[in-house]
Amino acid sequence: MRTTQMITRRGALGLCGGALAATARARSAAADAAATADLAAAARKAGLTFGAAVDLEILKDADFAALIRTQCDLIVPSQSLKMATIEPQFDAFQFEPGDALVEFAHASGKLARGHTIVWNDYAPDWTKSLSNAELAKALDAYIDAVAAHFAGRLQSWDIVNEPFWLGGDRPGSFRPGPWLAAFGEDYIERAFRRVAALDPTTKLVLNEAWTEWNDPIGIAVRRALLALIERLQDKGVKLDAIGLQGHILPHKPWDAEAFGAFLNKIAARGLDIYITELDIDNSGFVGDIAARDREAAQRTFAFLSTALACPAVNTVICWGLADNYSWYNDPWFQKQRRAAREARPLPFDAALQPKPMFEAIARAFADRKL
Ligand code: XIL
Fold first, then answer.
1. 327 C-alpha to center of ligand 1: Å?
2. How do residues 87-111 score in pLDDT, each as one tens digit?
3. Distance of alpha carbon 277 from alpha carbon 38, whole angstroms
4. Which residue has its alpha carbon closest to ligand 1 atom 14?
């Protein structure tokens, strides 16, 4: 496989250089690991599981599938386990795409993870024509069918995605949508309890965005998320991990100390933390591709090394692995771009070659002190 060969070749060159040059001899073990390891192996050494979001492209693109098999211990479907795919028409369930991806993972000796059972965003159109009472019944039926269908097959499930919404002047309040309308805040507890009853082995995850922003929105979402965790735990709801998406937006303020303190508060509640959707939208960076890739790597390293200082972080997942399959390069996303440039948000480029971001992730893993 071309990437493995390439990484191995680079690793060999790195070791050869180390034997010849004093500066290279002084390289840290971390740098050696970064130069030679695949991310899954580097993650394991750091007490982490590394994975990536993929979807049906994995079944069509053999080179990409090979890259995923080499680099990841876990995959998560980015689209095929969402309600829009599973129940596109009311009461007509479609499990085939999700099943195919879970089977790909297991046949490759990888873990599969679920994303996401309940999300107030991207609800299928049929939700618009139902009354709140009908929506409540529909959600219960959906949760039960999906949890039972995948029971025992998923390492973890994002039970609720993005409970909070940063909209308007009410940062930190609940994200509006059909499920909030039907149940109020209780939809969250309800979903966790129903899945726990049907699938006792999967890890139950509450997944949220924006918490790495050190602006009024990010600060409010952090505060709201911690309060929600406390309410759920006080009610005895089984909650195993908090997923923090980590879609890094470089123009947002970042404060390592504040983010680290937030992670420690989650950890103090006995929860694991997953970084669930790591990528960086660097389309707004100035400079040539090499400069942009270097800057993306630096930002990724700053974020990850802060996250990995918290021992509760045990999983890191990129939202995609190679730029050509990033959601930032989806046609619908192009319309809302802040810049005309192609986004280069992931550790591998469109030719499946590692970028500086690959080295940054490997270095953050290798540097982790357990
Ligand atoms: C994205 C998918 O990657 C896209 O293909 C789709 O069109 C929209 O959703 N946060 C989430 C993910 O929790 O579900 C989103 O995935 C990306 C942002």
1. 7
2. 999 999 999 999 999 999 999 999 9
3. 19
4. 78
Is the beta carbon of 78 within 6 A of some atom in ligand 1?
yes
Q: Is the pLDDT of residue 18 over 90?
A: no
* Tokens matching residue 96: 């085939």
Q: Distance (Å, rounded) from C-alpha 24 to C-alpha 237?
A: 52
The encoded tokens of residue 263 equal: 């992670």
Q: Is 8:41 a contact under the CB 8 Å cutoff?
A: no
Angle CA 266–249–343, to nearest 5: 135
The mean pLDDT value of the chain amounts to 89
Helix (H, G, I), strand (E, B) or coil at 348: strand
77: which 2 tokens? 């479907």
Cα(282)–Cα(297) distance, integer angstroms: 10
The minimum-distance atom of ligand 1 relative to the CA of 333 is 7
Identify the band that residue 340 occupies on the pLDDT scale cut at 50, 70 and 90. low
pLDDT above 60 for 118? yes
CA angle 37, 314, 210 (to 5 degrees): 105
Tokens encoding 366: 């290798």
- Which of these, 157, 42, 63, lies nearest to 111 by C-alpha position? 157
**pLDDT for 276-320, tens place per residue?**
999 998 877 777 899 999 999 999 999 999 999 999 999 999 999
Name which residue sits closest to atom 3 of ligand 1, judged by CA. Answer: 327
- Our answer on whether the CB atom of 189 is closer than 6 Å to any ligand 1 atom is no
Q: Is the CB of 327 under 6 A from ligand 1?
A: yes
